[in-house]
Amino acid sequence: MNFMYAIETKSLTKKYNEINAVDNLNLKIEEGEIFGLLGPNGAGKTTTLLMLTTLNKPTSGTAKVNNFDIIKQPDKVRKSIGIVFQDPSSDDILTGYENLKLHGWLYDMPDDLKEKRIREVLELVELTDRKDDLVKKYSGGMRRRLEIARGLMHHPKILFLDEPTLGLDPQSRDYIWKYIEKMARDEKITIIITTHYMDEADKLCDRLAIIDHGKIVVLGSPKNLKKELGGDIIRLKAKNLNIEILRNLKYVKKIRKCNGEVCLTVKDASKHLQEILKVVGKVDSVEIRSPTLDDVFLHYTGRAIREESPEGGWAQRVMNARSRR
Amino acid sequence: MGPESDECEVEKMSELKGIYALWYREFKVFLRERSRIISSIINPILWLLIIGGGLGSAVSFSGINYQTFIYPGVLIQSALFSSVFFGVYIVWDKKIDFLKEVLVAPMSRTSIFIGKIFGGSTDILVQIIILLGIGFVFLSTGIMSGISFNIVSLTISLAFLLVTTVGLISIGLILGSQMESPEGFQLIGSFLIFPMFFLSGALFPIDNLPPWLAPFIFVNPVTYSVDGLRGALIGASKFSLAFDFAIISLFAFVMIFIGTYAFKKMKI
């Protein structure tokens, strides 16, 4: 049997008014992995997702999803995937159970299978005893869980999660992460997550692609990406640092200044800390830590990822969505 | 039957289930939102009692009491407003991601459009049946007179109202599929509804219109619904019922056609 990719994009491109939201994307995602698309807001993650789920047509290029072409076989693509959107996408005047039932009908599930799956996925996200409450009585985190359960219901081979924890409180985030890991294990499906939270990508993803301005900046497993930086991070705070002398030390891989502080990427940092401190002179404070994906992002793009989303958090949008009708 | 046609049958079945799903959602929400039903009933009653009663003390047309005269027009008005504004819910669905959830499901855009039409028509049918009931009460208490309520007249009336509703909901959905904000929808919706209402002959007879006004009245499809309904309920219509029905059926058909196209082209 030929090895099949869950997703394979070929020069996938989307232009909005001459600006490339997604620029010549070539990506191969293997079956069964949790793959992350990591990048700041506006990097083109959601646009990529909308194209892969056939909701948006590419300007040029194409992609295969479960071996179906997104342009020529959109129906087959849609049948084989599940997606949890960034904004709330359940009807809050229906109960949790009714929302799932609706989904079962939309995906043409036989009645007995539908009821069985509703029980299973409600169990998975621990909403069984709240299934007959209207969704407007749910918290933001519960509504998110319901939508994740719904995305899984029709046994998709690939589940897309667009910013699954955007705007949720830390406790709800932990819950969602737990469910994502659990379903990756239990349901054996490919999961594709977009996120601008570095810690989320780090914790969940087998592999990830860092995306900026519609292009892949770098791709790999979180562990390797961090390893490739070539060392740990030492942060020095001092008035007058002798930076020039640091450039001569060959175990110092990278020197970066950030508002009065200096960040060094150093191989075997704990071993060399003493020497570094000796040559730079008096410092006010020192911090030594393992690199994070933030450092990876910074390394490849030269800037930090924007943490705050300009359009407001998910919770805010849940509130907005409630004022309807 | 070859394997291809088998698959075709399966596809059709799944589309039906999807249409049912959308109908179910619209109807469930309609039943839970009592305020929607109540407000859609109160308005027509006010029109009947205040405009109908007030003007009726001074005005009558060819022997028909004014309140009775505008009853068919008020029925159409209620269908007109609710139908067109039904389209606003699709703008709300767009504001959250519910619309995407439906669009990403493996069913055709045509079926989504049809599901919405079924959902909306059911809501408005319920509303109209209540208004017919109120008409019956007004009739038996002597507030109105000269309206014939029988199986034939009611069947014809419901047929007129239903076809009109389908055409008008299509207008609402077309508008909704193109609009981004509920406020924008409200603005353009009102801009459409008020001329359609005032230029329909709902409030005055269309026999001796000034020449400058007549063309506006006769291009308005709602005119033929009002005329047909008036014919069925009070036996006073300008055109034959068959002609009226043909015109509004054509109107509904064209709107469904445009609506299906608008849904296919809808961007998210």
Give structural notes.
- With 325 residues, chain A is of the alpha/beta class.
- Chain A has helices at residues 45-52, 74-79, 96-106, 111-124, 140-152, 170-187, 198-204, 222-227, 243-246, 269-280, 293-301, 314-322; strands at 5-16, 19-30, 34-38, 60-65, 68-69, 81-84, 158-162, 190-195, 207-212, 215-220, 232-237, 252-258, 261-266, 285-289.
- In chain A, helix 3 (96-106) runs parallel beside helix 5 (140-152) and helix 4 (111-124) crosses helix 5.
- Chain B is mainly α and 268 residues long.
- Chain B has eleven helices and two strands.
- Chain B has helices spanning 3-32, 34-56, 66-86, 88-95, 98-103, 109-140, 151-178, 182-198, 214-219, 221-234, 241-265; strands at residues 60-61, 64-65.
- Chain B has a two-stranded antiparallel sheet.
- In chain B, helix 6 (109-140) packs across helix 7 and helix 10 (221-234) crosses helix 11 (241-265).
- The two termini of chain B are 39 Å apart.
- The A-B interface holds A 50, 53-56, 75, 78-79, 81, 83, 85-91, 93-94, 98, 102-103, 105-108, 317, 320-321, 324-325 and B 13-14, 17-18, 20-21, 24-25, 28-29, 32-33, 36, 89, 92, 95-98, 100-107, 182, 268.
List keywords for this structure.
heterodimer, A: 325 residues, 4-stranded antiparallel beta sheet, 36% helix, B: 268 residues, mainly alpha, two-stranded antiparallel sheet, disordered N terminus
Spatial separation of the terminal alpha carbons of chain A: 53 Å
Q: Helix and strand string of chain A, N-terminal first?
A: EEEHEEHEHHHEHEHEEHEHEEHEHH
Distance between the termini of chain B: 39 Å
Low-confidence region ranges of chain B: 1-10
**Spatial arrangement of strands, main beta sheet of chain A:** 6-7-8-3-9-10
**Gyration radius over CA of chain B:** 20 Å
Provide the β-strand percentage band of chain B. under 5%
Order of helices and strands of chain B: HHEEHHHHHHHHH
| Cα-based radius of gyration of chain A, to the nearest Å | 23 Å
User: What class, by secondary structure content of chain B?
Assistant: mainly alpha
Q: Report the sheet with the most strands of chain B, covering strand number, pairing sense and barrel closure.
A: 2 strands, antiparallel
Task: Going across the biggest sheet of chain B, name each strand in turn.
Answer: 1-2
Please work out how many helical segments of chain B DSSP would assign: 11
Mean pLDDT of chain B: 91
> Judging from the principal axes of the Cα atoms, what is the shape of chain A?
elongated
Q: Please tell me the overall pLDDT of chain A.
A: 87
Give the fraction of residues assigned to helices of chain A. Answer: 25-40%
